[in-house]
Amino acid sequence: MAKLILSMDGLILKEITLSKERTTIGRKPHNDIQIDNLAVSGEHAVIVTILQDSFLEDLGSTNGTVVNGQPVKKHFLQNNDIIELGKYKLKYVNEAPAAQAKAADFERTMVLRPGAVKAAASAAAPAAAPAAAAAGGAKSFGDTVVNQGTTTAPGPAAKTTAQRNAALQLLSGPNAGKELDLTKPLTTLGKPGVQVAVITRRPQGFFITHVEGASFPVVNGKPIDAQAHSLNDHDVIELAGVKMEFFFKT
To answer: What domains appear along the chain, each with residue ranges and CATH number?
Structure first.
């Protein structure tokens, strides 16, 4: 399980296990990680952890958040990243075994801007296009980008019998009617810089979690909160101006 090591001037103060899906950092006492220093804003940053992945987002802090010497607004954390908050440092450590981490790299889905998707597609060799299409990759529905990992789906022996296959169907926009099968453990969708969420596939079912943006995704007319929200058959999701229906496949 991933953890943070809090230090100041080289002195380790404490270790924090990222056991929650949403870990807040700030000066105010209600934060999960409280840093009582004037250089740290009351609600400075948040780390969203899903499966093996952790995402850092600055919450509009006064002095900003720095990772590995570079100021960031949003950042996908990697092992040994150093988060700087004033004089304090938080080292991100992912203690997953190497094999498990490698598998997570394959399963991970990333949010890609439409321009980046097009550039990657044009750079690929024509002969590789059929293979890429078969493996599955970034799909752009208007301005909304959906990306899934490219690993081969697990065989019947590895699949949980209680888990059902599911998909999303777009209900609005020029691509209304199109479907996206939710075959990977983690599917990221939305508009980078506007609103991004992830849908995770777990043994207990499918869950949607807010990752980026001032407003939270809406399910059946009601905004979800910071925690993972369980999806039910025919739930209607509104994300980044697009309506889509979640449904189980028969």
So the answer is: 2-94 (2.60.200.20), 166-248 (2.60.200.20)
